[in-house]
Amino acid sequence: MRPVLAIVTAELRRFLRDRSNLFFVFIFPLVLVLVIGAQFGSGATAGKVAVAGESGAMVAALTTQLESDGLVVTSGSREDVLEQVSRGRAAVAVLVPDGAGAAFAAGRPVTLEVVPGSASNALAVQQRVRGAVDVLQLDQAQLAALTGRGVAAPAARAAVDAARDQVTGPATRVENVDALAREFQGVGQFDVGAASQLLLFTFLTSLAGSATLIQARRHGVIARTMAAPVSSAQVLLGQAGGRLVIALAQGIYIVVATSVLFGVDWGNLWLTGLVLLVFGAVSAGLAMVLGSLVDNEGAAGGLGVGLGLVLAGLGGGMVPLEVFSDTLRGVAHVTPHAWAYEAFAEIQRRDGTLVDVLPQLGVLTAMAVAALAVGAWALRRSLARAM
Amino acid sequence: MRTDGATAEPTGRGDVLVVDHLVRRFGDLTAVDGVSFRIAAGETYGLLGPNGAGKTTIISMVAGLIAPDEGTVTVAGEQMGRTAVAPKRHIGLVPQDLAVYPELTARENLVLFGRLQGMTGPQLTARVAEVTELIGLTGRAKDPTKEYSGGMKRRLNIGIGLLHRPTLLILDEPTVGVDPQSRNQILESVERLSVEGMAVLYTTHYMEEAERLCDRIGIIDSGVLQAEGTRDELVRLTGAVDHIRLSGTGDTHAAAEALRALPSVSQVDVDRRELRLTVGDAPSAVAQVVTRATDAGMSLADVEITRPDLESVFLHLTGKALRD
Question: Which domains are assigned to chain A?
Answer without folding.
Answer: 2-41+187-385 (no CATH), 48-182 (3.40.190)
